[in-house]
Specification:
Elements (H helix, E strand, L loop, with lengths): L1 H25 L37 E5 L3 E5 L3 E3 L1 E4 L3 E5 L6 E5 L14 E5 L3 E3 L4 E3 L4 E4 L3 E5 L2 E4 L8 H15 E2 L2 E2 L5 E4 L3 E5 L6 E6 L12 E5 L6 E6 L3 E5 L18 E5 L4 E5 L3 E3 L1 E4 L5 E4 L3 E3 L2 E3 L2 E4 L10 E3 L61 E2 L22 E3 L7 E3 L13 H33 L1
Parallel strand pairs: 1-4, 1-27, 2-5, 2-28, 3-6, 3-29, 4-7, 5-8, 6-9, 7-10, 8-11, 9-11, 10-12, 11-30, 16-18, 17-19, 19-21, 20-22, 21-24, 22-25, 23-26, 24-27, 25-28, 26-29
Antiparallel strand pairs: 13-14, 15-16, 31-32
Helix pairs in contact: 1-3
């Protein structure tokens, strides 16, 4: 009888342990970027993104690749921004004399070769589009949707829309709140799981080898001892882990030679789950002769980001302004390449804004503003260990359009059905697009993975508690019998 009672009590204790584990797991559920930003959007997304190349299209992506809360300036010898570009302010292009006179948006001659669908909004602005005399903005195959005036030469279809940027305005605050929350739980720095050390010739990030979310806090610049380029290496990162690098401080610079075109560099393999977060900086510079790897989030609306890196491979989301340029001396051809971010981040936005999509219709979808709230939840689960190292200028007011393009027009399509939780809608004459991240849709926000798991966990918790009650009743009954 004592043995039976012991077995019953042990079962009850096991149930209590399971309940405790459920509670901990529920608090560690991760979430995507606000508005579903990050992943590829649409039915023609490639299963695997290719290295930077100039071959046929590998797929189509209707997600936003570059988001700018302020103004977007193209200067010196910068070349192109692949993927969809959304700017809440003005888009201003005034490159230096002697540099290439064109700048591509949407389709890039060299990049991931995963452009937006034909007819999508390649560039959306809440202000004016200004192109310097003798220069051209190329958006062939897509739409330039603008709230303000257009000055200069722009190819592609021009769509005047006073509310062009209105559907995306709420993302600015959502991204600001998320950036702060990724770095701090309320006012307390988010616990780091690893260390970062600038050794001069490189900055070495050492993870804990087990956490699914690898968090690093960096309060220094990633530059060489004299301010020049240095390497970036990661070690102790489990396979499939998300890497969150919080670059704290008022001004931050990354100047690196790490990252290549053909994905042989170990850092390239971390690209789609690597986020560089700048929660405080009013000045950010990303430079160097490499293909910079990973997505970037800048949370200060009053900031200015200057990008002179040869290539940016990942999403670029800033709540402030962006200057895409080249150094005063040296080569040009700086490019943004469209690569997704698919990592799992701390749950910092409880009501994400649904990212609207491009559309060639002049009407804008009606979207209710949402308020983002901070939580103090962080991810703490583990995954199997597998380390890897690694000015204003006067311009003519004549606007012209054309159909020339420097990129091939071969497109690939797919009948792949969107994944669970994604909805599609079709406008006559327009490509199918999906929510979240950028497609035209009247559906509400995508339910987060965290919310779905919490529902299952609550049900499991109830069943375990019920089982515990039954165990107690059984023990009492057997005591009376004895």
């Amino acid at each position: 009888m004592r043995a039976r009672r012991f077995a019953s009590i042990s079962a009850g204790a096991a149930a209590v342990v399971c309940v405790a584990a459920l509670v901990v797991t529920d608090g560690a559920v991760a979430a995507p970027l606000p508005g579903g930003l990050g992943p590829c959007v649409g039915p023609a997304c490639p299963g695997t993104y290719p290295p930077v190349n100039n071959k046929d299209y590998a797929g189509r992506d209707n997600g936003i690749n570059v988001y700018v809360g302020g103004e977007f300036q193209v200067r010196e010898a910068a070349a192109e921004a692949e993927g969809r570009v959304v700017v809440l302010g003005d888009f201003d292009m005034a490159k230096r004399a002697g540099a290439s006179a064109v700048y591509n948006v949407g389709i890039a001659g060299v990049g991931s070769r995963v452009p937006p669908p034909d007819g999508a909004d390649f560039l959306t602005t809440g202000g004016d589009v200004s192109i310097a005399a003798g220069q051209r903005l190329l958006a062939d195959g897509g739409v330039v949707r603008h709230a303000g005036t257009v000055t200069g030469t722009v190819t592609g279809k021009l769509e005047k829309d006073p509310d062009a940027a209105k559907p995306y305005s709420g993302l600015r605050e959502d991204l600001r709140v998320a950036s702060k929350c990724y770095a701090r739980e309320n006012s307390t720095p988010r616990p780091a799981t690893g260390t970062a050390r600038n050794e001069g010739y490189r900055t070495l990030f050492t993870g804990d080898g087990k956490s699914a979310l690898q968090v690093f806090t960096v309060d220094f610049d990633l530059v060489g001892r004299t301010g020049g380029m240095q390497g970036i290496e990661f070690t102790g990162i489990p396979a499939g882990a998300t890497i969150l690098v919080n670059m704290v401080g008022a001004e931050r610079t990354i100047n690196t030679y790490t990252g290549d075109l053909d994905d042989r560099d170990p850092l390239n393999k971390l690209r789609e789950r690597l986020l560089w977060n700048f929660p405080d900086a009013t000045k950010v510079k990303i430079a160097g002769g490499a293909q910079f790897q990973g997505s970037v989030l800048i949370g200060e609306p009053g900031s200015t980001a200057t990008v002179t890196a040869s290539g940016m491979n990942g999403r670029f989301f800033t709540t402030g302004s962006l200057v895409h340029t080249s150094e005063a001396t040296g080569g040009g051809g700086q490019e943004f390449h469209a690569y997704p971010f698919t990592g799992d981040l701390p749950d910092c936005v409880t009501t994400p804004t649904t990212t609207p999509s491009s559309s060639t219709s002049s009407s804008s979808p009606s979207i209710s503003p949402t308020t983002a709230t901070s939580t103090t939840t962080s991810s703490s689960s583990s995954v199997p260990t597998s380390s890897t190292s690694s000015s204003s200028t006067s311009r003519p007011t004549t606007t012209t359009t054309g159909s020339s393009s420097t990129s091939p027009t071969t497109s690939s399509t797919s009948s792949t059905t969107p994944g669970p939780g994604m909805t599609t809608s079709t406008t006559p004459g327009q490509p199918i697009a999906t929510t979240p991240g950028g497609g035209p849709s009247d559906s509400g926000p995508l339910a987060s993975t965290g919310s779905e798991l919490r529902g299952l966990l609550v049900s499991g918790l109830f069943l375990l508690l019920l089982g515990g009650v039954l165990v107690v009743l059984t023990i009492r009954s057997r005591r009376r019998e004895s």
